[in-house]
Amino acid sequence: MAEIIGISSGLVALVGFALKSSTLLYDTVQSYRSHPKNVRDLVDELEALDVVLRALSETVEQTKDTDFTALKLPLLRCGNACKDFGELIAKCSSRSGGSKTSFRDWAKLKYMGDGIDEFRRMLAGYKSTINIALADANLRQSSVTTEGLEAYKVMIKDATTDLEDRLQSIDEKLESTFSRAASESDEEAIQMRQMQEERSSTQQGLAICAQLSAHISRIQPLLAADHSQRSTDAHAIPPAVAERITREGLEECQDTLSNTAKRLEKHLQSIMDRLMAKSKMALSSSQDAADLGRLQEEWDTARLCLDICSKANENVTKVTINVFENIKGDEDILQFFASATGKIVHAKNITLGQRGVQFGGQLSDASIQQISQDFSRTAYIAPMDPAPEMATPADRAGISVFRDRYGPGFKLSPQDGALSSSAGQQEQ
């Protein structure tokens, strides 16, 4: 009996299902000898997907307090897509009549109307989304380097672009299927066309909300930076009333846009459900209805993956890195390159004097204060060099020779000298 996995299944079960399906597809493809370029690329993508899924499995098992429930639908679609594509290969191979190792009809394989390259890009979208979710969880639980943070931003940007292209492709296929279903159902043709127009209008409204929200997000840091620059001046005047009103107004705009987008999302989902139901009834072929069901699942998944990327981008923009570079400390200095608020500290090319002390990383405010107090009470031993005005030329020459051989050295107290002399006599 075929394994039945639904979105209501637990996260561990869905990770296992996706991993099992992708591994089985990999083994199926590898069992054939003839591998054109696009098939070799698919094999590479399946290997990369396997690595990410195993990393997710380990993280889910080891980190119980991290919420990965948003990945349920992408994992389900990933597993189903790999399972369906494996069955498609087996079906085409049996029709070709050749031996299993000599299958050459790769170009004839079509999944949801697309070939192998499009299928590989779909898997890449799942892989990127899982990768971003893992990186986002790691970002909230531990620190990251500056280079790692920049690489993460690039990964989010690239994944978002690819997912937007994927969603546009699915939208075009849905539009074509809806139009064909409307033409086959004369009684409800007008109603379906109206729903299609409403769907397009709702998507346009969502795009406008996203553009306005992004524009406000770009303005807010500029306003905060301007205030921060003026507040460093001891003689600066308090923030103007207009500045406060502007800041509060922008925050209200963001809240309003967020609420509007949620209402539009709910409305769009309702329209899609109605369109899907009517289209499946209008389509004469059961295969067409099944293909439409897959398109609906992929449409929902692509939108969810985009939402995961959007939230990850919001989190990464909140990360602040304190950068310290090319700093030289003097003698007898106590330096801190630390954060008491969890912000990332990046220190590079930091040098200290001969007896300087340095602390870095994540420290609590209480620890920093305690260390400072402890070192302020510590008296450094004076170096052995006599005061310049008291040293004779012979003293200075001797000190120079000693320093070159053994370092600066330290001057002993009379008591220390007596102890050293006594110890030397005992050894004799």
From TrEMBL:
Domain called Azaphilone pigments biosynthesis cluster protein L N-terminal: residue spans: 2-210, 243-309
Protein name: Azaphilone pigments biosynthesis cluster protein L N-terminal domain-containing protein
InterPro entries: PigL_N
Polar residues bias locations: 418-428
Coiled coil (residue ranges): none
Chain positions covered by the region annotation Disordered: 408-428
